[in-house]
Design a protein that fits this description.
It is a single chain. By secondary structure, this protein is mainly α. Among the domains are: about 100 residues, SH3 type barrels, CATH 2.30.30; about 150 residues, Sec63 N-terminal domain-like fold (Orthogonal Bundle), CATH 1.10.3380.30. It is about 55% helix and about 5% strand. The chain is built from 15 helices and 7 strands. A 5-stranded antiparallel beta sheet has the order 4-3-2-1-5, covered by helices on one side. The protein has a two-stranded antiparallel ribbon with strand order 6-7. The longest helix is centred in the middle third of the chain and has 45 residues. The protein is flat and about 95 Å long. The two termini are about 35 Å apart. Bound molecules: zinc ion (ZN). Zinc ion binds next to loops.
């Protein structure tokens, strides 16, 4: 089966890469590859969540049948009637959600307009009543938090919950520039001034808010239509209507939940096959696959297991590394195995010479083009090459000491050895995969230079 020639790690983040896709198509063709992937993945997941979900769905199916029976009505199709009622409550709920959002927007707008010295009626909460604004607190435009002094001398920062309705400044008063809310005397003086100024105005006036005021959100026209359908339905006249309706509600709710579960299972098993389709599309477009046939370029890709397999393959196909010296080849290839830690703080990579710098630029541009293609097909495997190891790889091939290499890379010895071994893997793959005899011989020379001292293996 699938695992016969190579073991593919199956886990929740499993994605078929380019190399794997081309190998699978080669082995079994793309239809079968798709099937196999779906099966192995479903099986893998069967050990986990899917079994539980499937069991729940099975139970739900039994319950649904019972509910439907209990809801049956001699006057007509009660489920149809219940669906209409459900639709009505959905439409109404979405209307009131919109209304609430509109109300909130109105409140925020009124708060954003507040200025120091505005006297307002705080409509709700512990500090409801007359207050003067000390600081509008509009740093956060989405949710202003005005600081106020109440008529009872409390200085408080309020929040949106204190404003179920918009506020309107009743009048304006002067707040001394030197006012400090921590000074009790100052609070007393300002509160007293506030009470004086507000005397005679109906400051506890009725601010009862009428939702929909100003008609910013209209009632959904569907509401009247659905109501009419409900009234006209034969089941509407049944004396047992509300009793039927309770069962029907249960039915509809459970049906919805079950549907969600079902599509969750399907999605889980399908993603991996869909991903394979997309990867194959990219391979089609680049000419690595032709239907179920692997092209000569595809054959080359089959031999590259690097994380950046596709980029390596494209570089080989375009002869990007032609004519490089062994140490220079090691330098540019390191860009595809090495990844700088804390890349944001890292200094710009150093290159041994002009030629390697130019080749690195060609590779980066090529990678960007491929990433564009990936985006078109909604896959994402490639990352930009990282040449932070280029100088060290180059110097190592030419015989530099471990001390120098560690100093240059600022790596711990273990990290240096690991980076080197990854590079050696890739250089060996390039030697194997290329049809260019000169490049193969260069790669082998580079390998000889790389495998020495602590790196020997
Ligand atoms: Zn009935």
């Amino acid at each position: 089966g699938l695992a016969s020639t190579r073991t593919y790690p199956l886990n929740s983040s499993f994605r078929p890469s380019y190399n794997m896709a081309v190998n699978m198509v080669d082995q079994v063709g793309r239809e079968k590859a798709r099937e196999l992937l779906e099966q192995s993945f479903a099986q893998f997941q069967a050990d986990r969540a899917v079994v539980g979900m499937a069991r729940q769905i099975h139970k739900a199916d039994d319950a649904l049948e019972g509910y439907r029976e209990s809801a049956s009505c001699h006057l007509g199709d009660f489920m149809e009637y219940a669906a209409l009622r459900r639709e009505l409550s959905d439409v109404e709920a979405s209307g009131s959600r919109k209304r609430r959002a509109a109300d909130r927007a109105e409140v925020v707008e009124s708060l954003v307009g507040l200025k120091v010295g505005d006297v307002i009626n705080v409509p709700a909460g512990r500090w409801a009543g007359l207050a003067v604004v000390l600081d509008p607190g509009t740093a956060e435009a989405e949710a202003p938090r005005p600081m106020v002094l109440t008529a009872n001398r409390h200085a408080r920062r309020l929040a949106l919950v204190d404003f179920p309705t918009p506020v309107e400044p009743l009048l304006r008063m002067r707040v001394p520039k030197t006012f400090s809310s921590r000074n009790p005397q100052a609070r007393r003086d300002l509160a007293s001034a506030l009470r004086d100024r507000a005397e005679g105005i109906a400051w506890r006036r009725d601010t009862a808010y009428r939702p929909g005021n100003g008609g910013s959100v209209d009632a959904d026209p569907r509401i009247a239509e659905i109501r009419a359908k409900i009234k006209a339905h034969p089941c509407h006249q049944c004396p047992d209507r509300e009793s039927h309706a309770r069962w029907a509600e249960r039915y509809l709710k459970l049906e919805r939940d079950t549907q969600t579960q079902r599509s969750r299972i399907e999605q889980r098993t399908n993603t991996v096959a869909r991903q394979l389709d997309r990867v194959n599309e990219v391979l089609d477009e680049l000419g690595y696959l032709d239907g179920d046939t692997v092209t000569p370029d595809g054959r080359r890709l089959q031999r590259i297991y690097s994380e950046l397999d596709l980029l390596v393959s494209e570089c080989l196909r375009r002869g990007v590394w032609k004519g490089l010296a062994p140490a220079d080849l090691a330098a540019v290839l390191s860009g595809m195995t090495f990844e700088t830690r804390n890349a944001d703080d890292a200094p710009a990579p150093r290159f041994p010479n002009r030629r390697t710098l130019e080749v690195s630029e060609t590779m980066s541009t090529l990678c960007a083009d491929l990433q564009l293609l990936e985006r078109e097909h909604r896959v994402k495997f490639l990352r930009k090459p990282d040449f932070g190891f280029a100088q060290a790889a180059h110097d190592w091939v030419l015989g530099s000491s471990l001390d120098d290499a560690l100093h240059l890379t600022e790596l711990a010895a273990g990290d240096f050895v690991r980076s080197m071994k990854q590079l050696i893997d890739l250089v060996a793959q390039v030697a194997q995969a290329t049809d260019d005899d000169a490049l193969r011989s260069t790669a082998r020379k580079a390998l000889d230079g790389l495998r020495r001292g602590v790196i020997e293996y």
